[in-house]
# Entry
Amino acid sequence: MGRIVAIDFGLKRTGIAVTDPLKIIASGLTTLPTSEVITFLKSYCEKEPVEGFVVGLPLYPDGNPAQLAAQADAFAQQLRKQFPDKPVFRQDERYTSNEAKRILLDSGARKKKRRDKALVDKIAAALILEQFMQEHYWNTL
# Structure
């Protein structure tokens, strides 16, 4: 059984989250400069069994593609080329960054921690993964 890796793509930073091998829990893993993500994923896939990837699909509230959508699409294509044996899924990521900020606020995190964009990106990736798992794995019982 392999993990599912979720990616909250950004032009500067990219948040990464993973499931456990049984696909029960989605957890934030790290945030990296976007230029380092493919190298990191290659290394990660050598150490851990990865079943597939989920890349956030940036949409406006009305469902139209957001400004970042073309770059996220290009990144998803790059993943498909680098990992041809692993499926790459897309998942609506509307409101995940705002939800990540709310989670940090509700957790009682200090202001400095709430402003940590890398932490917000990692939590947003976990939320993208949670939504994907909810739709494709967890509700299949």
The mean pLDDT is 89. Residues 17 and 28 are 4 Å apart (CA to CA). Residues 3-140 form a domain with the Nucleotidyltransferase; domain 5 fold (CATH 3.30.420.140).
